[in-house]
Amino acid sequence: MSLEGLSDEALLALVARGDEEALRLLFRRYAGAFLGLARRMGLDRTAQEDVVQEAFVKVWRSAGQFDPRRATARAWLLAVGHHTAVDFLRRLEARPKALDPGAEEGQEAFDLPGPGLDEEGHLDRVRLGQALARLSPEEREVIEVLFYQGFPHQEAAQRLGIPLGTLKTRARRALLRLKEVLREA
Amino acid sequence: MRPEEVRDLLPLYALGALSPEERARVEEALERYPELWAEAKALMEAAAHLAEAGPPDPVPPGLEARVLRRIRALKRPSPWPWLGRAAAALLLLALGYGVLWGGGWLLALREASTQVRTLVSPEGQVVGRVVLRGDRTALILLDRSPPRGKVFQAWGLDRGEPIPLPTFRFPIKTLRLPPEALAVAVSLEPPGGSPRPTLLLGLPQ
């Protein structure tokens, strides 16, 4: 039976039972996204490929822990990819150029790269770009430092010169705002 | 970790801003607080959009094969080289026991007091059989294993509420019915079983 038409959730359930073909299909669906994210986070080509390998080993080992009540399969898989890239970044201490949130290039750093191969994905990225533009500069800065630069929260608060509580509040507000704006779009 | 502490960390968890140890603690705590799942899901969903902010990169040739090679290397190596002799001895013992045990049930089929009932799912699909002996011992044979995170549970049926009987994980189970039970049904339950059936799997036809 071909697994091509199965949802990510169904493929993850098969991976949890040791199905290699299901993992291969998830690799084909997400490896490009993991590579793009690792590049965006400042990792070099070799490290990007290492992130992909490591992330899929984690998917293989921990697919049984995926709980659809707590996350969609897509969000869970992308979180595995992101956490892996963050761990690499912290180990290598290689980070992309820090943003100057007040400057023009700060805005530019959130401008999204050109269209990929898929039109739908491109539209999603345009919508995300618009949603990010509606965050306050402080909220965007928190997203940049935590998510893309991979700084742990204490270090991020220190770098931004804000109390940890403020960082947490801005992070929560930014995510909820993104979700809200993307739902409206 | 208290629920408010977990809730406080959820945005940082979603943004990957925790250490691996903190991350594991949040995940462990989340299992205990279902009231936080909806919020965790919403924050994770928003963070997933950030992860796909750029277009996917082309996957270099050979990367898929490298990943699959690593996965295959993780599969458990066969224990046979050193366990072979012990396993063979255990297998022989098990076969001997199985012949005696199975033979007992086979002989019971000759008795007029033994009943064989088919178990049928609510959708009308045959899912197994129950052999019920005159001494009220029952052998349940199912055609499947329970899904991940679930166990089978047997139920004694009389004219009132179903009577909860033992849970089991393998598709074969023997048990003794309470005197008031006239037949056996099987359901799928969380580990440990339930006082009432959650998801009926097989009812006697």
Can you offer a commentary on this structure?
Chain A has 185 residues and is mainly α. Chain A has 2 domains: 8-92, Rna Polymerase Sigma Factor, Chain: A, CATH 1.10.1740; 104-184, Winged helix-like DNA-binding domain superfamily/Winged helix DNA-binding domain (Arc Repressor Mutant, subunit A, Orthogonal Bundle), CATH 1.10.10.10. Chain A is built from 9 helices and no strands. The longest helix of chain A is centred in the first third of the chain and has 21 residues, at 20-40. Chain B is an alpha+beta fold and 205 residues long. In chain B, strands 5-4-7-8-1-2-3-6 form an 8-stranded antiparallel sheet, with no helix packed on it. Chain B is elongated and about 70 Å long. Chains A and B meet through α2, α3, α4, α6 and α7 of A and α1, α2, α3 and α4 of B.
Radius of gyration of chain A (CA) equals 17 Å
Instruction: Classify the beta-strand content of chain B into a percent band.
Output: 15-25%
Low-confidence residue ranges of chain B? 78-85
Q: Could you tell me the radius of gyration of chain B in angstroms? A: 25 Å
CATH architecture of the largest domain in chain B: Sandwich
Question: Helix count of chain B, per DSSP?
Answer: 5
Oligomer: heterodimer
Taken as a percent bin, the fraction of beta residues of chain A is: under 5%
Question: How many structural units, i.e. domains of chain A?
Answer: 2
- What is the percent of helical residues of chain B? 25-40%
